[in-house]
Amino acid sequence: MDAVVILVLGVSCLLLLSLWRQSSGRGKLPPGPAPLPLVGNILQIDVRDISKSFASLSKVYGPVFTLYLGMKPSVVLHGYEAVKEALIDFGEDFAGRGSFAVSERVNKGLGILFSNGNTWKEMRRFSIMTLRNFGMGKRSVEDRVQEEARCLVEELRKTNGEPCDPTFLLGCAPCNVICSIIFRKRFDYKDEDFLNLMEKFNENLRLLSLPWMQVCNAFPFIIDYLPGIHNKILKNFAYVKDYVLERVKEHQESLDIDNPLDFIDCFLIKMEQEKHSPQSEFTIASLIATVTDMFGAGTETTSTTLRYGLLLLLKHAEVTAKVQEEIERVIGRERTPCMQDRSHMPYTDAVVHEVQRYIDLVPNNLSHAVTRDVKFRGYVLPKGTTVITSLTSVLYDDKEFPHPEKFDPGHFLDDSGNFKKSDYFMPFSTGKRMCAGEGLARMELFLFLTTILQNFKLKPLVDPKDIDTTPITSGFGHVPPSYQLCFLPL
């Protein structure tokens, strides 16, 4: 009986503590649905499609509202004005990274994607500077992308026009580009290590987008104490980190301080320069976390966009025909596409932008956190408050993009057929924590897609009207359904 009484008292105390914590700060935070003890609002949203729940809640509570995903409050920003105001106008105040339970277990606050404070500032500054030194946004990186595009075309030719699933081939190309920058090497498309890495990245994006992982993020103790797919994700990340560690050891043995050849060399040199500084952020653990972040982010997001893009082009044959006509007129069949061509190819440029807008790859962005107590739109957000910015609400704004649920390159064309920029185009986020590899990703998407369409006719295996472009998961990311097509040489 004593044990039962203690258990009841313990649960009651937890419930009272939960209610007190949830109510104590609500006078400062934006309005939102009343949370339940312990679980918060998790039962009031659809974890299979959180963006849809956010849209519904914004109609009731406005563009800024509070949700409790578990016992901690998160402030949701819905719509262009709120997102822009926070991430650009209040950029420094909203530059923190919110908690992401799996990442905290993997990188322990290190790296570039999920780090905070001085760690994040140092890693981002160093990474951007080093990437620029190795030609990011310059001709040297463009040469690498063009060469990889040619290799991709040769691999696609080997399919001999037979039905194939493009997933791994479209993953290999961007992965090889980032590998050449980080590891100064590229892989053969049949390399076993390469294919294993591709499989881990692809599987993790799919698993991270399942409803279960949204629950794990709200209740992090699940990851430490319960079985589930989160353990598979952690195992995949461990595999990638072990691979990166082996490459780092090779670089330590071959390092020439006077002649750095890639990102890892530059990081090791920085480590040597700061080895006597106890506050240095440049450690082996930090190197592995940063390279793992760059490796994954530089591979999976671009390859998924390419895969989704081809699916959309299969469904919309009239769009594909217009792109190929523009390629024929501006580039021809013999010359390799280059970035200078983009300014003369407004329709193709619009198609690439519309692919990114339509697929809405990371619908709710990586969560942010405020770096100090912030007064925002009449509310007070205490330091550390998690902030979720709905990119879906920006990319699918029906005033900026008429009929946003339709795939229409006209969203990025003016009445004269010229390319039209939009401030609402935020697939890479915006502000202080926007994607550091945006320039490379945009280059890859344009060059890979134009090179593929320059060389092949895309043939679907079913009637285009029967092609379903609905993502199979809508959590962390929008993952396209599996499909096959034929690449018919032109």
Automatic annotation (TrEMBL):
Database matches in InterPro entries: Cyt_P450, Cyt_P450_CS, Cyt_P450_E_grp-I, Cyt_P450_sf, Cytochrome_P450_fam2
Listed GO MF terms: heme binding; iron ion binding; oxidoreductase activity, acting on paired donors, with incorporation or reduction of molecular oxygen, reduced flavin or flavoprotein as one donor, and incorporation of one atom of oxygen
Enzyme class, first EC level, given as a word: oxidoreductase
Binding site for heme: 435
PANTHER family the UniProt entry points to: CYTOCHROME P450 2C9, CYTOCHROME P450 508A4-RELATED
Chief location bin: endoplasmic reticulum
Signal peptide coordinates: 1-25
Gene name of the encoded protein: LOC101564514
Species assigned in the record: Octodon degus
Membrane-traversing stretches: none
Cofactor: heme
Subcellular localization, as worded in the UniProt entry: Endoplasmic reticulum membrane; Microsome membrane
Any one of the GO CC terms: endoplasmic reticulum membrane
Protein name (database record): unspecific monooxygenase
Keyword S-adenosyl-L-methionine: no
